[in-house]
Specification:
about 450 residues; alpha+beta; Aminopeptidase; Alpha-Beta Plaits; 2 domains; eight-stranded antiparallel sheet; six-stranded mixed sheet; about 30% helix; about 25% strand; elongated; M20A_pepV-rel
Length: about 450
Amino acid sequence: MSQSRLSERLDEMKDEILEGIQKSVQIDSVATEAEENAPYGPGPKAALDFALHLGEELGFRTGNVDNHAGYVEYGEGEEMVAVLGHMDVVPTGDDWKYPPFGGEIHDGVMYGRGVVDDKGPTIGAIYALKAIRDLDLPIDRRIRVIFGTNEERGSSCIQYYVEKGEEQPVMGITPDAEFPLIFFEKGMTNVTAGCKNPAQGAIKVLEFQGGTVHNIVPLHCRLVLEGEHEIPEAKGVTVTKENGNTVLVSEGVSAHGSTPALGVNGISLLLDAVKDLEIGGDYQKVFDFLRTHIGHETNGKGLGICYQDEETGETTVNLGVIEGTEKDIHFVLDIRYPKNGKKEEVQATLEKQFGEAGLEILSIDHTDMLYVPKDSELVQKLMKVYREGTGQMDAQPKAIGGGTYAKMFKNMVAFGPIFPGDPDVVHQPNEAVEIEKLMQSIKLVAEAMAEMARK
């Protein structure tokens, strides 16, 4: 019953909600250099001030955490539940049909940087709080809408919130990913390995570079060898002779690093092309290791880290970057593993494998997995809200290889705003959302807020 009442109240507030989101989108909140009282620059600070002022105007308690983050709160009770959003945005880029900081509405669609990620859902959640209060819905826990200002550059905003000792929710959602909800996010290990001061071999390597970032399947790889060498034709690799040297360039198929099986790795293609060439030295050592232990495999089997779990999937490994310089030859692996994987085991296995090949770890970092069991109170409440709110009674929670803002707090999951089958416009030119879908997502978040606040 409360769901239809909330839905009706939010429909009555539609113009007010859309105007609030538009005003927020009109603030250029791309992070810049820190200024006094603006740790991420004046843009994120202005967007933070807007959200806090909106909360105050609507009559809610607000809090400013030293201009890193803020919150709007309603209700009474010892426990607090939360919606976590962010007010910063990525740069706009080019090729926009309408002004990226305009928030303009055309043919039932709102355009602008942040309408989906994440100002639309965050400002929408503040208005959802108003609808819950207007209806005087019975709640047993306080509801807090928390908004950071540095999510797009590492989320130090919420790290600061936690380190300052601000109250953490007993459960919560972030409307910063996909519906129905994401109950599991894989653990991640990013490792850079190779050789320092590499020794050249029988064939001198003049240039070697492939990929740009760890979390993208590399499209291209380029290798320049001193001298002219006969290299058999290889799939996806072009071989030319330039100024007495041999130049190899590969072209693969790009994909996200969390789903490397959907791409074709340009580095691996190039390594295939030179498999019969005795280059020698440390380059040979690296080439042989990568061909033997990775090749075109994407599940970590050759590295000894292939974890498999029926509920949360299997390990993925993306060879994202490789580069040779006078200083070192190094490669970067993006490794993601399901809930039966352990970062300590992953690191120990890699150290052993690299050590046996005469390679070393140059840097390594880990991101813990997020796992909120399907039978938990939070997931059960949210799936009930989603199924009843959409009529999709067979909808199931998702496990993903990527990471979301939900990792900032315990017992929090990503819940919306993108619906299954809808295009992912996040970080793209012409970021846009259908008004109908935007309102539907705000209604689901509103009901989720009320449901989490009831014991």
